[in-house]
Amino acid sequence: MLGTMPPHLCYIFLQSPQPISRFPSRLMVPIQRALQLKVTKWGALVNWAFYGDPVSDNFEEVSAKAFFANGRTLDISRLTMANLDTVEQQMRDCLSGNGPSLPHGTVHLYVCTHGTRDCRCGTVGKNVAEALRREISARAEADPKGLASRCTVGEVGHVGGHQYAANLLVYPHGEWWGSLTPEHIPITVDKVIELASKPFSIHSPPLLPLNWRGRMGLSKEAQ
């Protein structure tokens, strides 16, 4: 499992207007294709993320969130074919060190639940996503000011590595964990909160070494 994460310097999550469970096996709409062609040149990956209630069926105008290996982030309220070049330049600026950073402690958790691509992601992945939501919600309710209240859970399309389902992507840290089950979730959330509670660097040791697929910003050799 070690080193099975595709190396990247940036991960861009386009907000999907539809649940991942409704995706075909391979979804590639014009805005996604055009963006991926541009950002691949400088080491970025593009995927869809679903956070809850559908917004619309419109895949031509979306919002997005981009995370960078240098710790920068970029929230994009509106992405279309018309402003694609402008948004890409903003991303390049973030990669070069300009741009906002997330507030300390904010963590975004993304589980691959793309079941039409591989049934393991649709079953184990979905179960893990639901277990994560329950665990995060319970901890946030018990301690409204705690770090769990600053965690969000989303579902994403295909990330590669079906055999490692369930796959969990942790950003802005860029940690990829695989082979998770609902039974792993309490300790997984413990580690997520540990990530959020102290300084993090690209050279920090993995917190779940047996489930670690890799980290954003590291080459396969470095992993």
UniProtKB/TrEMBL annotation:
InterPro entries in alphabetical order: Aim32/Apd1-like (IPR009737), Thioredoxin-like_sf (IPR036249)
Gene3D superfamilies: Glutaredoxin
Pfam families referenced in this protein's UniProt entry, alphabetically: Suc_Fer-like
Protein name: Sucraseferredoxin-like protein
Organism: Armillaria gallica (Bulbous honey fungus)
